[in-house]
Write a structure and sequence with these properties.
globular; 6-stranded antiparallel sheet; mainly beta
Length: about 80
């Protein structure tokens, strides 16, 4: 769930649909649950390729979100686009 009925933001656990190879500016991440998230910070990261890696997207301060990918030990700030 993205938000509860009370407007509370909750963490999301899902998987990236397809192969994950990092991010490069404004990378869009499509999730198996149908959601889409876009990189919300500058920079790039590449550390191999991962097939359908698990992700955890958790709320942070000031309305931002942090997506963690345990397979590569990496995190990136994201914003929901769908």
């Amino acid at each position: 769930m993205f938000e509860t009925d009370t407007g509370e933001r909750t963490a999301i656990e899902t998987r990236i649909a397809g192969t994950f190879g990092g991010w490069y500016g404004k990378t869009r991440f499509v999730m198996e649950n149908g959601q889409e998230w876009t990189q919300a910070e500058s920079g790039q990261f590449s550390n191999g390729r991962y097939d359908h890696p698990a992700v955890r997207i958790k709320p942070m301060l000031l309305g931002s979100w942090l997506m963690s990918i345990p397979a590569c030990g990496c995190d990136v700030r994201v914003e929901r686009t769908k």
